[in-house]
């Protein structure tokens, strides 16, 4: 008789525990927007297959080389002249700025 009562008590406790677990699973936890913004989720990195990457490397290199547009002689001449003009312009500009700073230092009696 005592064993039956103990078994019933144990079964009731187990049922109560299961119900509590079910209730806790059903409840949704509300999280504020600020908390959601502050939570940082780390993305899992996928493992790289180095053997496959080495096999695909020559194909990727060829694709990148095909993307390059090779310039003609006229186009290169034009670009070369433009680059030289910019270099001369900025050389003159910085030379003048240097002379201006030198004159300013002479006025202040620092130089």
Automatic annotation (TrEMBL):
The chain crosses the membrane at residues 80-101. One of its GO terms (biological process) is intracellular protein transport. The keyword Isomerase does not apply. GO terms for molecular function: protein transmembrane transporter activity. InterPro entries: SecE_bac, SecE_sf, Translocase_SecE/Sec61-g. It is found in: Membrane. GO terms for cellular component: membrane. The keyword Signal does not apply. Its main location: membrane. NCBIfam families: secE_bact. This is Preprotein translocase subunit SecE. It comes from Mesoplasma coleopterae.
């Amino acid at each position: 008789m005592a064993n039956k009562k103990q078994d019933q008590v144990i079964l009731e406790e187990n049922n109560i525990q299961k119900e509590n677990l079910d209730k806790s699973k059903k409840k949704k936890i509300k999280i504020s927007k600020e908390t959601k913004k502050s939570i940082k989720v780390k993305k899992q990195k996928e493992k790289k297959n180095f053997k496959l990457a080495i096999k695909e490397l020559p194909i990727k290199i060829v694709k990148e080389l095909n993307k390059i547009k090779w310039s003609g002689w006229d186009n290169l001449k034009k670009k070369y002249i433009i680059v030289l003009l910019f270099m001369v312009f900025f050389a003159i500009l910085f030379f003048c700025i240097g002379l201006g700073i030198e004159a300013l230092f002479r006025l202040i009696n620092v130089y």
